[in-house]
Structure formats: C-alpha cells, structure tokens
Automatic annotation (TrEMBL):
Amino acid transporter transmembrane domain residues: 14-395
Keywords, alphabetical: Amino-acid transport, Membrane, Transmembrane, Transmembrane helix, Transport
Keyword NADP among UniProt keywords: no
InterPro entries in alphabetical order: AA_transpt_TM
UniProt keyword annotation of Transport present: yes
Topology relative to the membrane: Multi-pass membrane protein
GO molecular function: L-amino acid transmembrane transporter activity
Record's protein name: Amino acid transporter transmembrane domain-containing protein
Pfam families reported for this sequence: Aa_trans (PF01490)
Protein origin, superkingdom: Eukaryota
C-alpha cells in the first residue's frame, strides 16, 4: 500500500541513480510509518531485531526479482516474472494478490483520513432531520466526497506527480512529531518493555508492511539507464527506509510508551508540530486514493468485452463503484491498525517473501536438486508463512475484540 499502501510509479525511461532511489524509496515509505510505533509498542525494544531481519530478507528478495528479470529482456513487471515462472496461474495469482492489497490499502486510506479529521474536529457531527451521524463516520463520507473528483479522471498522470511527494511528506511527518517531543512539552519518558512475546505476531506483521514495495521493483529496474547500479539503488533505498521507520518507531515509543493505534491520534493538536504532522497525513489519502485503486479498476476493465472496455461511462461507473464499496467497509469496520496488520500478514508476505523465492527457484531450476540456496529460500518462505499465519490470527482476534 503502502503502499501504502503504494501509489503506482511513473514509467520514466532512462532514470538515473538518484531518481531511481527516489522512486524506490517512495514505493516503500507509506502508511506503515504511522503504525510502526504501535508495532514497537506491541513487540518491545527487542522486536527491532525482527524489523532489521525483515528489512534484510526483503532486500534480498528484491534482488531475486532483479535476477529473474535478467533472464529475459521481455520481462518488465512482477506479473511477467510470475508468468515466466509458473505461466498463467502465476500471473493470475500475482494479479489477485496485487489487486486485493490495493483495494484494502484504499480502505485504509479512508480510515486514516477520517480518524485524523476526527482528531482535529472531535465535536463534528452530521444531523439530517432525526438522523445523526457520528464524527468519525461523518468524516468517512466527507472524505469520499472530497476524493470523488479524482475518481472522475481516467488520465492520472498529474496525480502521479502529486503522489511523488510521498518521501518528503514522510520525512516531514517524522520531523514534526520529533519537534512535538522536543518542544511541545511531551518529552521522551516512555521507557517501554524490553520484549512482549504476545505482541510479536502483530509487531512482525506491521514491520512487514514497511517493506511492501516489491510489486514496483521491476518498474524501477526497467526504467534505469544503467541497470548495473540497481543493487546499489535498492540498498540505499532500504537503508533510508529502515532509518526513517526506526526513527519514527523510537520517537513515538519514547514519547507515549504503550501505543494502541496510529501515532498521529496521540499528538496534542494545540502544538504547531502536531498540526503539521496531522495535516501532512491528511494529504496522503486525497493524493493517493485514485492511484491506489487504478490497478483494480484496470483489471476489472480488462475483463470486459471490447464494446465496454473503453467506454468512458463504464470506466467511471467502475471507479465510483470501487469508491462506494471501500467507503462502506471503512464506515463499518474502522480499525486501521488491524487492517494494516492483515495486509502485511497475507498480501505482503506473499509478494515480498514467498513468490520471489518460488519464482527464482522455478526460473533457475533450483527446485530440482538439493542446495544450500534452496535451504535458504525454504527458510525465508517458512519465516514469511509463520509470520503471516500468526499475524493474521492476532489481527483477526484483535478485530473481533474491537467489534
């Protein structure tokens, strides 16, 4: 998602190292930034070792995708890699996984917006005759109305440029929250626990979301002028991403100790730094929602007959239908941290841990013979599956407690 939840990147030919680093970092920095303090609070300080493990593993699986692409110049996307390895079944699996993740990220963006608006205006409600709609629910509806004009655009190139401010927005958010701790009277007094074993599944699933950008790695690689520099680009991007996430996690945990939801909901709205952080966060759903659901809309359109595929009223109807359906889910199930955890446990685990290893082994024929590489890939897959299963169970039980 998030890529963010993650917005699709522009396919620019001949990108240099700096631009490729920017694009890759933009793919990984997302709404996981707001939940990583909660992840650290759930797992304790020692869980940061698992964060670094996730970062190292996902960096390696990103390199595996690059090596798969090197086997065939016609491979341009993650879908092509899966198709090369497993044929149509592999392509369909990745397509379903990618679209499901995008759809749920879109729901998360709506929840994120409504929660932070409610934080700023806690007394706001909508009254229509005898009907009274609560503050958070009201802001879900208002957010949908604000986003609606962007859904009427079928050419989203302008929004792509707006969304590319994601790296700056994330860094600004971290700096603003840090300023609240330093100058806002909050301080850094939350010592926190060394280890919370019960919360480790939730922590790991949220850490996994922080590195949910593998779907766009092939796009970044394909767009580079000098592809020999890609490993360096990916390393720099992962280092910057890891430092940013760890900074946010540490600052948030030291400021508030036990955290149970996104960090912005704990900030004192009277402080200028808090307002900057919250208003910056409010820009993310407006600029990224349409881009996030575009792959889902394109997939639906691709399944239509030629008569309706390029018919503009049908394309608009599909996009409005996606907006309405995500609004209903966000209205009825407003549990941001549980949703992000589920995204990490199921969809990111598959895209960032399991599929890169399986595709690499299939393309290079490693599944046929015993080797140490095969053992390593099996370890990555097992780690991902176990983290996914435990994280999903923890998220679902947490969701049931909230309902």
């Amino acid at each position: 998602m998030g890529n963010e939840l993650k917005a699709p990147l522009l396919q620019t030919k001949g990108s240099g190292v700096l631009k490729a680093c920017f694009n890759a970092t933009n793919a990984f920095l997302g709404i996981g930034l707001l939940t990583v303090p909660y992840a650290l609070s759930s797992g304790g300080w020692l869980s940061l070792t698992l964060f670094l493990s996730v970062a190292a593993i996902t960096f390696y699986t990103g390199i595996l995708l690059k090596r798969c692409m090197d086997t065939d110049p016609s491979i341009k996307s993650y879908l092509d890699i899966a198709d090369c390895a497993f044929g149509a079944k592999g392509r369909i699996t990745v397509l379903i996984n990618m679209n499901s993740e995008c759809y749920l990220v879109a729901v998360g963006l709506l929840i994120l917006e409504s929660d932070n608006l409610h934080k700023l205006f806690p007394d706001f409600i909508i009254k229509i005759g005898t009907l009274v709609i609560g503050g958070r629910e009201s802001f879900v509806i208002i957010t949908g109305l604000v986003i609606l004009p962007t859904m009427l655009l079928t050419d989203l190139s302008l929004l792509s440029y707006v969304s590319a401010t994601g790296v700056f927005s994330c860094l600004l958010t971290v700096g603003s929250i840090l300023s609240v701790g330093v100058f806002g009277g909050v301080g850094f007094h939350g010592r926190g626990a060394l280890l919370n074993i019960d919360g480790l599944p939730t922590a790991v699933s949220l850490y996994i979301v922080c590195f949910a950008g593998h779907v766009v790695i092939p796009s970044v690689y394909s767009s580079m002028r000098d592809r020999c520099q890609f490993s360096k680009v990916l390393l720099y991007s992962f280092i910057l991403t890891a430092i940013t996430y760890m900074s946010m996690a540490t600052v948030g945990y030291l400021m508030y100790g036990d955290i149970e939801t996104q960090i912005t909901l704990y900030l004192p709205t009277s402080e200028i730094g808090a307002k900057i952080a919250i208003y910056t966060t409010l820009l993310i759903p407006v600029t990224r929602y349409a881009l996030t659901v575009t792959p889902v809309a394109n997939t639906i359109e691709g399944g239509l007959s030629e008569e309706y595929r390029n018919w503009r009223p049908m394309r608009l109807l599909i996009r409005i239908g996606l907006l309405v359906s995500t609004l209903i889910i966000a209205y009825l199930f407003p549990y941001f941290e549980n949703l992000v955890s589920i995204i990490g446990s199921i969809f990111v685990v598959l895209a960032s841990f399991v599929l890169p290893c399986l595709c690499y082994m299939k393309i290079f024929g490693l599944y046929k013979n015993f080797s140490y590489k095969r053992i390593g890939f099996a370890g990555i897959i097992v780690f991902g599956v176990v983290a996914g299963v435990l994280g999903t169970y923890s998220s679902v039980t947490g969701f049931m407690r909230n309902v």
